Amino acid sequence: MAPRRQQTVVMYPSFGVGHIIPMTELARVLLRRGLDVTMVLIERPFWSSDSGAATTRRVMAANPAITFHVLPPDPSPPDFAGSTKLPFFHTLQLLRRYNGELGRFLRSFPRRRLHSVVTGMFSTYAAEVAAELGVPAYTFFASGAGFLAVVAQLPALLAGRQEGLKVLGDAPLEFLGVPPIPASHMVKELLEHPEEDVQRHGGRSEAHRRHRRRPAEHVRVAGEPRRAGAQGPPVRPGKAMPPMYCIGPVVGDGSAPREMPPERRHEHECLLAWLDAQQKRSVVYLCFGSRGTLPAEQLREIAIGLERSRHRFLWVVRTPAGTDGPKKFLEQRPEPDLAALLPAGFLERTGGRGLVVTSWAPQVAVLRHRSTGAFVTHCGWNSVLEAVAAGVPMLCWPLYSEQMLNKVLMTDLDMGVAWEMEGYAAGRVGADEVEAKVRLVMDLEEGRELGARVTARREEAVAALEDGGTSQVALARFLADAEKLRGQLGD
Asked: Sorted alphabetically, which Pfam families does this protein's record hold (predicted)?
């Protein structure tokens, strides 16, 4: 007798490393529960980015248990040249155009084998395809539950606005379930565009409003434990939120995949060997995400501050970004010339206590290493969860997207895992601030108190993942509800 085919979850992440990696971690969770997983990727635009393409290839090679399917290239890709629209809007338009190809792929499965479709937070147009096929559709929300609470309440806030939120400056915006958020800390699309413009181009509030239209879209999966990442459950004034399953934190264990290229494996081993030689909790780790870049002048300020602090450091430096604009989202950048970017003699003077690497570091392994004592981060939610899971206190330096909003949540005492680096909002954090905050988090009593709060959040995350923990309970409820919904949609 032929073996019974397992049910398949089709995962359809949004563009970008920050969406693909956490969805891959969720896929591993589902694989351990006996489900097959097929991840559908789009060839553009992330293949056009050197770091994004390389990371995606590593993810594919490192996960042979996941079936990866790349949809054919869009025959009429958007023309970024001369466009004044933000890259985010182009991305949403491109994702919607892929619905036809996605539908053809999904129809290649016998319906009884399709367990569900899990979309990324900006791939929600795919729920239309799943609804046509009678397959449950879920959204994996890769950002924090606090940001989800804000997103859920945005339509009421923005209704009828003729201007973007930028005109409000730093005025606090009140949302249920989260601390007051300065208007200036909202995502760029809402700062610079009125709500009607955001909706016309497929903006964030519209993307999330779509979840309330069909039963198949009325659930979300979040990659974090309930308490470690949120002040409370997401809420919407006057209405109940759809179910949310807090599964996680879904982060890697930091081990080097067997399929890692030899040159990258050598870098990985050398970097960890350097960390092995350092004392416990003695190293400040600085990294600004897969797309985070800083101007050359800012890199020099960081270097001066690190040198003055006298602390050990591991710093990931990328080539500064060029001119702002949509093209910046896709452009490839060469390896940085450290001698030209950093102060004269900096590398020689700090060589005994600092390590500067270009473009990449095995972040989860670094954060989980015993020598790492603090993390200067851009506040991307993947990085936040990785640091919380490792028990490493953070210094916040948000750069783009929802990162400034994340900073508010991270520094609020209810979560209490970070301090902010003053000056980021104005585009310049001075050397004095770098020195002072590094010394504060590494040397002083306040830094030890911050570390204790992060340790408490880490213990909550560990408890969530244990048998009977909130993550395991949420996962079981998700699977049971999905099976029930499959039956309802199949009637």
From this structure: UDPGT (PF00201)
